[in-house]
Prior knowledge:
By secondary structure, the protein is α/β, with parallel strands linked by helices. Helices cover 49% and strands 17% of the residues.
Amino acid sequence: xxxxxxxxxxxxxxxxxxxxxxxxxxxxxxxxxxxxxxxxxxxxxxxxxxxxxxxxxxxxxxxxxxxxxxxxxxxxxxxxxxxxxxxxxxxxxxxxxxxxxxxxxxxxxxxxxxxxxxxxxxxxxxxxxxxxxxxxxxxxxxxxxxxxxxxxxxxxxxxxxxxxxxxxxxxxxxxxxxxxxxxxxxxxxxxxxxxxxxxxxxxxxxxxxxxxxxxxxxxxxxxxxxxxxxxxxxxxxxxxxxxxxxxxxxxxxxxxxxxxxxxxxxxxxxxxxxxxxxxxxxxx
Length: 284
């Protein structure tokens, strides 16, 4: 059984940066991803791996979910990454450039059975493998799909900056695969650090597409992501009305009721209960 949780914001930070790791223990992100891949120079890979392992052992991240992203499994650093993480068991290990089920099978064999896997979907092959990845998720202990939009745009040879409409249908496919397997779905990063209005727009779009949250590259993005992927006051109020309406003894046995001039069914009740549970988790 996959444990559902609130994951509005997942902050990437280089595992080689001790100050960033210390600061991450105080930030309001729902997850912290210690990166051994893109954010770490080749000459710093070993040091970053040791620092990530030390951070997992030391803990102190509170409610924040602590993830470690390895180097790609075809690189010279991957075997050492997986060996180190197998013994310390972070909340999950994020595997980059997952092209197929075989990629995750290799990671699972190296990590052992007890560490959850997250998969970054950032190649064309990965997109084409989504149905197979969803089908194999339970057996492999895969619990999240992460959209790697920068690398995906590169793999597609899109001109920079990529047109949003080119990636939109692929991001939807990631959400569909995640929902089919009961997985977390996280949207790609926003590259604009000094344009909060762009981050707000990306969060709003990501939520409309069905993502649970967004991956981030700077602490100043956390608040807007949490706000963008959290339910609005209007959504909370409507959810409360739906739950209260179905709790009315006169309507408790009905499959559909009239509320605010609309037909509301039990599927809407389930969604209302999910929103209220999300609100309680966030507040707690």
